[in-house]
Amino acid sequence: MTAQPLPSPAQDAEATLRTLLADVLGLAPARAATFANETELFGALPEFDSMAVAHLLTGIEERFHVVIEDDDVEAEDFLTFGRLLAFVERLRR
Predict the structure, then answer these.
(1) How far is 9 from 45, CA to CA, in rounded Å?
(2) Gap between the Cα atoms of 82 and 14, Å rounded
(3) pLDDT tens across 10-52, in order?
């Protein structure tokens, strides 16, 4: 049996974010798996409303073990999957 390489931190963050989005938005995991960097989120998905943003921020804090300050959050961070992933990666540094 060949050892499988461990996922990179970026791959791990992406997979965790996809799972979190599916959970918060009530999406099928298969649908979240299709999100590309340019996939529009806030304003494009009816499930992604202001309440979902609040739940998503809480989920990001819990799953990525970060603290999100008000100054950390920009509306643009929720426009696309790629921007949201970049936001999470920025918080993790």
Answers:
(1) 27
(2) 9
(3) 669 999 999 999 999 999 999 999 999 999 999 999 999 999 9
